[in-house]
Amino acid sequence: MKLKVSSLSYFSKCPHFPTPLHVGQLNFPEWNRFESSFKQIFERGWYTNHGPLVCELEERLADFLKVRNVMCMTNATIGLCLAARALNLKNKVIVPAFTFAATVQSLTWAGIEPVFCDVDMNSHLITGPHVEAALEEGVSAVLGVHMWGQACNTEELARIASKNKLKIYYDSAHAFGCTHHGIPIGNFGELEVFSFHATKILNAAEGGCVCTNNDDLAAYIRNSRSSYGKGLSVPVELTGNGRMSEAQAAMALLSLEDFQKNKTANQQRAILYTDLLSPIPGIYPILRDKNEKNNYQYVVFEINDIEFGLSRNELIRLLEAENILCRQYFYPGMQRCPPYISKYQKTLNNTDELCKRVLQFPSGSGITHDNIRDICRIVEYIHENSKQIRSKMRKI
Ligand code: T4K
Fold first, then answer.
1. How far is residue 147's CA from residue 297's CA, in Å, rounded to a whole number?
2. Residue 71 per-residue DSSP state
Protein backbone atom coordinates (compact mmCIF):
# COMPACT_ATOMS: atom_id res chain seq x y z
CA MET A 1 0.00 0.00 0.00
CA LYS A 2 1.51 3.31 -1.09
CA LEU A 3 0.51 6.26 1.06
CA LYS A 4 1.00 10.01 0.64
CA VAL A 5 -0.26 12.79 2.89
CA SER A 6 -2.10 14.41 -0.01
CA SER A 7 -3.77 11.11 -0.91
CA LEU A 8 -5.26 10.59 2.58
CA SER A 9 -8.99 10.75 2.04
CA TYR A 10 -9.37 13.59 4.56
CA PHE A 11 -7.68 15.75 1.89
CA SER A 12 -8.40 13.86 -1.33
CA LYS A 13 -11.97 12.58 -0.63
CA CYS A 14 -10.95 9.18 -1.96
CA PRO A 15 -11.41 6.65 0.88
CA HIS A 16 -9.10 3.65 1.20
CA PHE A 17 -12.09 1.35 1.91
CA PRO A 18 -15.03 1.62 -0.52
CA THR A 19 -17.58 0.74 2.19
CA PRO A 20 -17.58 1.61 5.91
CA LEU A 21 -15.86 -0.69 8.43
CA HIS A 22 -17.83 -0.71 11.68
CA VAL A 23 -17.10 -1.33 15.33
CA GLY A 24 -20.18 -3.60 15.61
CA GLN A 25 -19.73 -7.36 15.82
CA LEU A 26 -22.53 -8.49 13.50
CA ASN A 27 -21.64 -12.16 13.71
CA PHE A 28 -24.24 -13.83 11.49
CA PRO A 29 -25.28 -17.47 11.97
CA GLU A 30 -25.37 -19.50 8.74
CA TRP A 31 -28.52 -18.73 6.77
CA ASN A 32 -29.81 -22.33 6.62
CA ARG A 33 -29.71 -22.66 10.44
CA PHE A 34 -31.50 -19.33 10.82
CA GLU A 35 -34.11 -20.27 8.21
CA SER A 36 -34.82 -23.63 9.80
CA SER A 37 -35.20 -22.05 13.25
CA PHE A 38 -37.59 -19.41 11.90
CA LYS A 39 -39.59 -21.98 9.97
CA GLN A 40 -40.24 -23.77 13.25
CA ILE A 41 -41.48 -20.53 14.83
CA PHE A 42 -43.93 -20.10 11.93
CA GLU A 43 -45.08 -23.73 12.21
CA ARG A 44 -45.68 -23.40 15.96
CA GLY A 45 -47.47 -20.07 15.49
CA TRP A 46 -46.01 -18.93 18.81
CA TYR A 47 -44.16 -15.65 18.58
CA THR A 48 -43.70 -14.29 22.08
CA ASN A 49 -44.82 -14.51 25.76
CA HIS A 50 -42.12 -16.88 27.00
CA GLY A 51 -42.29 -19.33 24.12
CA PRO A 52 -40.26 -22.54 23.88
CA LEU A 53 -37.17 -20.86 22.40
CA VAL A 54 -37.00 -18.23 25.14
CA CYS A 55 -37.36 -20.98 27.76
CA GLU A 56 -34.66 -23.05 26.07
CA LEU A 57 -32.37 -20.01 25.85
CA GLU A 58 -32.83 -19.26 29.56
CA GLU A 59 -31.90 -22.86 30.43
CA ARG A 60 -28.88 -22.88 28.14
CA LEU A 61 -27.66 -19.53 29.45
CA ALA A 62 -28.05 -20.65 33.07
CA ASP A 63 -25.96 -23.69 32.21
CA PHE A 64 -23.33 -21.68 30.30
CA LEU A 65 -23.02 -19.00 33.01
CA LYS A 66 -23.42 -21.48 35.90
CA VAL A 67 -26.05 -19.26 37.51
CA ARG A 68 -29.39 -20.32 39.07
CA ASN A 69 -31.70 -17.88 37.29
CA VAL A 70 -31.66 -16.21 33.88
CA MET A 71 -34.47 -13.91 32.78
CA CYS A 72 -34.26 -12.95 29.10
CA MET A 73 -35.23 -9.40 28.22
CA THR A 74 -36.02 -7.20 25.23
CA ASN A 75 -32.65 -5.48 25.77
CA ALA A 76 -30.20 -4.70 28.57
CA THR A 77 -31.57 -1.20 29.15
CA ILE A 78 -34.97 -2.62 30.13
CA GLY A 79 -33.19 -5.27 32.22
CA LEU A 80 -31.33 -2.55 34.14
CA CYS A 81 -34.54 -0.54 34.67
CA LEU A 82 -36.45 -3.57 36.01
CA ALA A 83 -33.44 -4.52 38.16
CA ALA A 84 -33.36 -1.13 39.87
CA ARG A 85 -37.01 -1.53 40.91
CA ALA A 86 -36.64 -5.19 41.87
CA LEU A 87 -33.77 -4.29 44.19
CA ASN A 88 -36.03 -1.69 45.83
CA LEU A 89 -33.31 0.92 45.58
CA LYS A 90 -33.86 4.24 47.30
CA ASN A 91 -32.60 7.80 46.85
CA LYS A 92 -29.12 7.53 45.35
CA VAL A 93 -26.90 4.93 43.66
CA ILE A 94 -23.15 5.19 42.98
CA VAL A 95 -22.34 4.55 39.32
CA PRO A 96 -19.27 5.19 37.12
CA ALA A 97 -19.55 8.22 34.82
CA PHE A 98 -17.36 6.40 32.28
CA THR A 99 -20.09 4.17 30.83
CA PHE A 100 -22.84 3.98 28.22
CA ALA A 101 -25.87 6.25 28.78
CA ALA A 102 -28.18 3.28 29.49
CA THR A 103 -26.31 2.34 32.70
CA VAL A 104 -27.03 5.70 34.28
CA GLN A 105 -30.37 6.40 32.67
CA SER A 106 -31.80 3.12 34.02
CA LEU A 107 -31.46 4.73 37.45
CA THR A 108 -33.18 7.91 36.36
CA TRP A 109 -36.06 5.86 34.89
CA ALA A 110 -36.39 4.17 38.30
CA GLY A 111 -36.50 7.54 40.08
CA ILE A 112 -33.01 7.16 41.58
CA GLU A 113 -30.38 9.90 41.62
CA PRO A 114 -27.03 8.75 40.19
CA VAL A 115 -23.94 9.66 42.21
CA PHE A 116 -21.04 9.55 39.78
CA CYS A 117 -17.73 8.01 40.70
CA ASP A 118 -14.41 7.97 38.89
CA VAL A 119 -12.65 4.91 37.45
CA ASP A 120 -9.15 3.48 37.45
CA MET A 121 -6.94 4.88 34.65
CA ASN A 122 -5.53 1.47 33.66
CA SER A 123 -8.51 -0.86 33.86
CA HIS A 124 -11.28 1.74 33.29
CA LEU A 125 -13.16 0.04 36.19
CA ILE A 126 -14.52 1.40 39.46
CA THR A 127 -12.43 0.41 42.50
CA GLY A 128 -13.02 0.44 46.26
CA PRO A 129 -11.34 3.85 46.81
CA HIS A 130 -13.35 5.41 43.97
CA VAL A 131 -16.60 4.13 45.47
CA GLU A 132 -15.61 5.25 48.99
CA ALA A 133 -14.78 8.72 47.69
CA ALA A 134 -18.29 8.97 46.23
CA LEU A 135 -20.15 7.81 49.37
CA GLU A 136 -22.67 10.35 50.65
CA GLU A 137 -25.91 10.56 52.60
CA GLY A 138 -28.77 8.69 50.92
CA VAL A 139 -26.70 6.20 48.87
CA SER A 140 -28.46 2.82 48.85
CA ALA A 141 -26.45 0.84 46.27
CA VAL A 142 -23.53 0.62 43.85
CA LEU A 143 -24.02 -0.21 40.18
CA GLY A 144 -20.66 -1.46 38.84
CA VAL A 145 -19.79 -1.91 35.17
CA HIS A 146 -17.51 -4.74 34.01
CA MET A 147 -15.95 -2.56 31.32
CA TRP A 148 -14.55 -4.22 28.17
CA GLY A 149 -15.31 -7.66 29.65
CA GLN A 150 -12.99 -7.19 32.60
CA ALA A 151 -14.44 -7.76 36.05
CA CYS A 152 -14.53 -5.15 38.78
CA ASN A 153 -12.84 -6.24 42.01
CA THR A 154 -16.08 -7.77 43.26
CA GLU A 155 -14.62 -8.88 46.62
CA GLU A 156 -13.39 -5.39 47.50
CA LEU A 157 -16.69 -3.84 46.38
CA ALA A 158 -18.69 -6.45 48.34
CA ARG A 159 -16.71 -5.55 51.50
CA ILE A 160 -17.44 -1.84 51.07
CA ALA A 161 -21.08 -2.56 50.29
CA SER A 162 -21.51 -4.71 53.37
CA LYS A 163 -19.70 -2.20 55.65
CA ASN A 164 -21.97 0.61 54.43
CA LYS A 165 -25.17 -1.49 54.14
CA LEU A 166 -25.37 -1.00 50.38
CA LYS A 167 -26.65 -3.31 47.69
CA ILE A 168 -24.35 -4.01 44.78
CA TYR A 169 -25.23 -5.13 41.25
CA TYR A 170 -23.52 -5.07 37.87
CA ASP A 171 -24.02 -3.88 34.33
CA SER A 172 -22.29 -6.70 32.43
CA ALA A 173 -23.30 -5.59 28.93
CA HIS A 174 -19.71 -6.09 27.72
CA ALA A 175 -18.89 -9.22 29.67
CA PHE A 176 -20.77 -12.20 28.29
CA GLY A 177 -18.54 -15.29 28.48
CA CYS A 178 -15.90 -13.55 30.63
CA THR A 179 -14.66 -14.67 34.04
CA HIS A 180 -13.44 -13.32 37.38
CA HIS A 181 -11.13 -15.70 39.29
CA GLY A 182 -12.38 -18.34 36.86
CA ILE A 183 -16.04 -17.80 37.85
CA PRO A 184 -18.34 -16.72 35.01
CA ILE A 185 -19.43 -13.10 35.19
CA GLY A 186 -23.16 -13.27 35.88
CA ASN A 187 -22.66 -14.63 39.42
CA PHE A 188 -21.61 -11.47 41.24
CA GLY A 189 -23.51 -8.98 43.37
CA GLU A 190 -27.29 -9.17 43.78
CA LEU A 191 -27.72 -9.55 40.03
CA GLU A 192 -26.04 -8.84 36.69
CA VAL A 193 -27.40 -7.63 33.36
CA PHE A 194 -26.06 -8.67 29.93
CA SER A 195 -26.75 -7.13 26.53
CA PHE A 196 -27.40 -9.21 23.42
CA HIS A 197 -27.52 -6.21 21.08
CA ALA A 198 -26.53 -6.88 17.44
CA THR A 199 -23.06 -5.45 18.09
CA LYS A 200 -22.36 -7.78 21.05
CA ILE A 201 -20.73 -11.20 20.96
CA LEU A 202 -24.00 -12.88 21.89
CA ASN A 203 -26.33 -11.44 19.29
CA ALA A 204 -30.13 -11.59 19.54
CA ALA A 205 -30.38 -8.58 17.18
CA GLU A 206 -31.80 -6.82 20.25
CA GLY A 207 -31.88 -8.54 23.61
CA GLY A 208 -30.38 -9.07 27.00
CA CYS A 209 -30.87 -10.92 30.26
CA VAL A 210 -30.79 -10.50 34.01
CA CYS A 211 -28.96 -13.20 36.04
CA THR A 212 -29.15 -13.87 39.75
CA ASN A 213 -28.55 -16.64 42.25
CA ASN A 214 -31.31 -15.17 44.44
CA ASP A 215 -34.56 -17.05 43.70
CA ASP A 216 -36.84 -14.43 45.33
CA LEU A 217 -35.31 -11.65 43.29
CA ALA A 218 -35.64 -13.78 40.17
CA ALA A 219 -39.35 -14.41 40.87
CA TYR A 220 -39.91 -10.69 41.32
CA ILE A 221 -38.12 -9.86 38.07
CA ARG A 222 -39.99 -12.58 36.15
CA ASN A 223 -43.29 -11.09 37.26
CA SER A 224 -42.35 -7.48 36.69
CA ARG A 225 -40.96 -8.35 33.24
CA SER A 226 -44.56 -8.72 32.12
CA SER A 227 -47.99 -8.80 33.62
CA TYR A 228 -48.23 -12.48 32.76
CA GLY A 229 -44.79 -13.58 33.86
CA LYS A 230 -43.70 -17.19 33.69
CA GLY A 231 -42.94 -18.88 36.99
CA LEU A 232 -43.84 -18.39 40.63
CA SER A 233 -46.48 -15.70 41.07
CA VAL A 234 -45.23 -13.02 43.48
CA PRO A 235 -46.73 -9.58 44.08
CA VAL A 236 -45.01 -6.77 42.22
CA GLU A 237 -45.90 -3.09 42.33
CA LEU A 238 -45.43 -2.35 38.66
CA THR A 239 -45.13 -4.50 35.59
CA GLY A 240 -43.69 -3.56 32.24
CA ASN A 241 -42.98 -5.32 28.99
CA GLY A 242 -39.41 -6.55 28.84
CA ARG A 243 -40.28 -9.84 27.16
CA MET A 244 -37.90 -11.33 24.63
CA SER A 245 -39.58 -12.58 21.45
CA GLU A 246 -39.12 -16.03 19.91
CA ALA A 247 -37.37 -14.38 16.94
CA GLN A 248 -34.79 -12.84 19.27
CA ALA A 249 -34.33 -16.11 21.15
CA ALA A 250 -33.83 -18.03 17.87
CA MET A 251 -31.04 -15.66 16.90
CA ALA A 252 -29.48 -15.81 20.39
CA LEU A 253 -29.52 -19.63 20.49
CA LEU A 254 -27.66 -19.80 17.17
CA SER A 255 -25.24 -17.15 18.36
CA LEU A 256 -24.64 -19.09 21.59
CA GLU A 257 -23.73 -22.19 19.55
CA ASP A 258 -21.20 -20.03 17.65
CA PHE A 259 -19.84 -18.33 20.77
CA GLN A 260 -16.47 -20.10 20.96
CA LYS A 261 -15.83 -19.67 17.22
CA ASN A 262 -16.72 -15.97 17.33
CA LYS A 263 -14.70 -15.37 20.48
CA THR A 264 -11.61 -16.99 18.96
CA ALA A 265 -11.98 -14.88 15.83
CA ASN A 266 -12.37 -11.74 17.99
CA GLN A 267 -9.27 -12.66 19.95
CA GLN A 268 -7.22 -13.19 16.78
CA ARG A 269 -8.30 -9.80 15.44
CA ALA A 270 -7.46 -8.13 18.78
CA ILE A 271 -4.02 -9.79 18.85
CA LEU A 272 -3.27 -8.64 15.30
CA TYR A 273 -4.27 -5.06 16.11
CA THR A 274 -2.14 -5.16 19.27
CA ASP A 275 0.91 -6.60 17.48
CA LEU A 276 0.75 -4.03 14.71
CA LEU A 277 -0.23 -0.94 16.70
CA SER A 278 1.79 -1.39 19.90
CA PRO A 279 5.16 -0.45 18.33
CA ILE A 280 3.70 2.92 17.27
CA PRO A 281 4.47 5.64 19.87
CA GLY A 282 1.45 7.00 21.74
CA ILE A 283 -1.03 4.21 21.02
CA TYR A 284 -1.65 1.72 23.81
CA PRO A 285 -3.93 -1.33 23.97
CA ILE A 286 -6.04 -1.94 27.05
CA LEU A 287 -4.21 -4.68 28.96
CA ARG A 288 -6.44 -7.61 29.85
CA ASP A 289 -5.74 -10.19 32.56
CA LYS A 290 -4.46 -13.24 30.66
CA ASN A 291 -5.64 -15.58 33.44
CA GLU A 292 -9.27 -14.66 32.85
CA LYS A 293 -11.55 -15.38 29.92
CA ASN A 294 -12.44 -12.32 27.83
CA ASN A 295 -14.75 -12.13 24.81
CA TYR A 296 -12.66 -9.45 23.01
CA GLN A 297 -15.95 -7.81 22.01
CA TYR A 298 -14.24 -4.43 21.72
CA VAL A 299 -10.75 -3.64 20.41
CA VAL A 300 -9.83 -0.82 22.79
CA PHE A 301 -6.82 1.49 22.53
CA GLU A 302 -5.77 4.75 24.17
CA ILE A 303 -4.10 7.61 22.34
CA ASN A 304 -1.51 9.80 24.04
CA ASP A 305 -1.70 12.84 21.78
CA ILE A 306 1.76 14.20 22.62
CA GLU A 307 3.51 10.91 21.82
CA PHE A 308 1.29 10.08 18.84
CA GLY A 309 1.47 13.58 17.34
CA LEU A 310 -2.29 14.00 16.90
CA SER A 311 -5.24 13.85 19.27
CA ARG A 312 -7.64 10.90 19.46
CA ASN A 313 -10.33 13.04 17.78
CA GLU A 314 -8.03 14.06 14.94
CA LEU A 315 -7.11 10.41 14.38
CA ILE A 316 -10.79 9.42 14.38
CA ARG A 317 -11.57 12.11 11.77
CA LEU A 318 -8.71 10.99 9.52
CA LEU A 319 -9.72 7.33 9.77
CA GLU A 320 -13.39 8.11 9.26
CA ALA A 321 -12.50 9.74 5.94
CA GLU A 322 -10.97 6.37 4.93
CA ASN A 323 -14.26 4.63 5.92
CA ILE A 324 -12.63 3.23 9.07
CA LEU A 325 -15.35 4.05 11.59
CA CYS A 326 -13.78 3.95 15.04
CA ARG A 327 -15.94 4.80 18.05
CA GLN A 328 -15.16 6.98 21.05
CA TYR A 329 -16.90 4.98 23.74
CA PHE A 330 -17.53 6.85 25.95
CA TYR A 331 -17.60 10.53 25.19
CA PRO A 332 -18.35 12.70 27.05
CA GLY A 333 -18.48 11.23 30.57
CA MET A 334 -22.07 10.87 31.78
CA GLN A 335 -21.52 13.62 34.39
CA ARG A 336 -21.18 16.00 31.43
CA CYS A 337 -24.35 14.83 29.65
CA PRO A 338 -27.87 16.16 30.04
CA PRO A 339 -29.82 15.87 32.30
CA TYR A 340 -26.96 15.34 34.76
CA ILE A 341 -24.59 18.14 33.75
CA SER A 342 -26.69 20.91 35.23
CA LYS A 343 -26.55 19.38 38.74
CA TYR A 344 -23.10 17.86 38.73
CA GLN A 345 -20.21 19.84 40.13
CA LYS A 346 -17.52 17.27 41.07
CA THR A 347 -14.47 16.80 38.86
CA LEU A 348 -13.75 13.25 37.70
CA ASN A 349 -10.20 13.57 36.39
CA ASN A 350 -9.71 10.00 35.17
CA THR A 351 -13.09 9.88 33.45
CA ASP A 352 -12.41 13.18 31.67
CA GLU A 353 -8.96 12.01 30.60
CA LEU A 354 -10.17 8.61 29.35
CA CYS A 355 -13.01 10.25 27.43
CA LYS A 356 -10.33 12.14 25.49
CA ARG A 357 -8.05 9.14 24.92
CA VAL A 358 -10.03 5.94 24.37
CA LEU A 359 -11.09 4.62 20.98
CA GLN A 360 -12.40 1.33 19.59
CA PHE A 361 -11.31 -0.06 16.23
CA PRO A 362 -13.56 -1.91 13.77
CA SER A 363 -13.99 -5.58 14.66
CA GLY A 364 -16.42 -8.45 14.21
CA SER A 365 -16.85 -10.88 11.36
CA GLY A 366 -16.95 -8.16 8.68
CA ILE A 367 -13.32 -7.23 9.34
CA THR A 368 -10.64 -9.38 7.72
CA HIS A 369 -7.01 -9.66 8.80
CA ASP A 370 -6.05 -7.84 5.59
CA ASN A 371 -8.40 -5.01 6.58
CA ILE A 372 -6.65 -4.82 9.95
CA ARG A 373 -3.19 -4.76 8.34
CA ASP A 374 -4.32 -1.86 6.14
CA ILE A 375 -5.93 0.00 9.05
CA CYS A 376 -2.77 -0.35 11.15
CA ARG A 377 -0.52 0.74 8.27
CA ILE A 378 -2.66 3.86 7.81
CA VAL A 379 -2.46 4.62 11.55
CA GLU A 380 1.32 4.15 11.47
CA TYR A 381 1.61 6.44 8.44
CA ILE A 382 -0.54 9.06 10.15
CA HIS A 383 1.75 8.96 13.19
CA GLU A 384 4.93 9.16 11.08
CA ASN A 385 3.60 12.21 9.23
CA SER A 386 1.62 13.73 12.08
CA LYS A 387 3.27 17.17 11.96
CA GLN A 388 2.60 17.67 8.27
CA ILE A 389 -0.92 16.23 8.58
CA ARG A 390 -1.81 18.45 11.53
CA SER A 391 -0.70 21.63 9.79
CA LYS A 392 -2.57 20.61 6.62
CA MET A 393 -5.71 19.78 8.64
CA ARG A 394 -5.63 23.20 10.25
CA LYS A 395 -5.61 24.91 6.88
CA ILE A 396 -8.90 23.29 5.82
N1 T4K B 1 -24.56 -0.89 29.44
C2 T4K B 1 -23.45 -0.74 28.71
C3 T4K B 1 -22.15 -0.62 29.39
C4 T4K B 1 -23.54 -0.72 27.31
O5 T4K B 1 -22.42 -0.55 26.57
C6 T4K B 1 -24.81 -0.85 26.70
C7 T4K B 1 -24.95 -0.82 25.26
C8 T4K B 1 -25.94 -1.02 27.52
C9 T4K B 1 -25.78 -1.04 28.90
C10 T4K B 1 -27.32 -1.16 26.96
O11 T4K B 1 -27.47 -2.35 26.20
P12 T4K B 1 -28.73 -2.49 25.17
O13 T4K B 1 -29.95 -1.89 25.82
O14 T4K B 1 -28.32 -1.80 23.89
O15 T4K B 1 -28.91 -3.98 25.01
C16 T4K B 1 -23.99 0.73 20.63
C17 T4K B 1 -25.04 -0.30 20.93
O18 T4K B 1 -26.27 0.07 20.35
C19 T4K B 1 -25.22 -0.52 22.41
O20 T4K B 1 -25.86 -1.76 22.60
C21 T4K B 1 -23.86 -0.56 23.11
N22 T4K B 1 -23.95 -0.68 24.53
C23 T4K B 1 -23.06 0.68 22.82
C24 T4K B 1 -21.71 0.67 23.46
O25 T4K B 1 -22.89 0.77 21.42
P26 T4K B 1 -24.07 2.92 19.18
O27 T4K B 1 -25.28 3.75 18.93
O28 T4K B 1 -22.84 3.62 19.47
O29 T4K B 1 -23.67 1.95 18.03
P30 T4K B 1 -24.58 1.25 16.96
O31 T4K B 1 -25.70 0.51 17.59
O32 T4K B 1 -24.92 2.28 15.97
O33 T4K B 1 -23.56 0.18 16.34
C34 T4K B 1 -22.18 0.45 16.02
C35 T4K B 1 -21.92 0.29 14.54
O36 T4K B 1 -22.25 -1.01 14.12
C37 T4K B 1 -22.74 1.24 13.70
O38 T4K B 1 -21.99 2.36 13.38
C39 T4K B 1 -23.06 0.46 12.46
C40 T4K B 1 -22.85 -0.98 12.83
N41 T4K B 1 -24.11 -1.70 12.82
C42 T4K B 1 -24.95 -1.62 13.91
C43 T4K B 1 -26.15 -2.28 13.88
C44 T4K B 1 -27.10 -2.18 15.06
C45 T4K B 1 -24.46 -2.41 11.71
O46 T4K B 1 -23.69 -2.43 10.74
N47 T4K B 1 -25.64 -3.09 11.69
C48 T4K B 1 -26.51 -3.06 12.73
O49 T4K B 1 -27.57 -3.71 12.70
O50 T4K B 1 -24.54 1.98 20.41
1. 11
2. E
CA gap 71, 159 in Å, rounded: 27
**How much is the pTM?**
0.96
Alpha helices in the chain (DSSP H): 9-12, 31-44, 52-65, 76-86, 101-109, 128-134, 154-163, 215-225, 246-257, 259-277, 305-308, 312-321, 349-357, 369-384, 386-395
List, for the chain, all residue ranges whose pLDDT scores fall below the cut of 70: 25, 227-231
Q: What is the Cα gyration radius of the chain?
A: 22
Interior angle at CA 11, CA 6 and CA 12, nearest 5: 80
- Ligand 1: distance of its center to the CA of 199 in Å? 6
Contact 126, 145 (CB under 8 A): yes
**Exposed/middle/buried for residue 396 (C-beta within 10 Å: 0-12, 13-18, 19+):** exposed
What letters, b where the CB count within 10 A reaches 16 and e where it falls short, cover 199-234?
Answer: bbbbbbebbbbbbbbeeebbbbbbbbbbeebbeeee
Which pLDDT score, from 0 to 100, does residue 217 have? 96
| Closest of 198, 242, 204, 189 to residue 220, by C-alpha | 242
**94 backbone dihedrals φ, ψ, rounded to 5°:** -80, 135
Q: Cβ–Cβ contacts within 10 Å for residue 66, how many? A: 12
Cα(371) to ligand 1 centroid in Å equals: 22
The CB of 103 under 6 Å from ligand 1? The reply is yes
Rounded to the nearest angstrom, the distance between the alpha carbon of 138 and the centre of ligand 1 is 32
Is 75 near ligand 1, meaning CB less than 6 Å away? Answer: yes
Query: Of all atoms in ligand 1, which is nearest to the CA of residue 99?
Result: 3
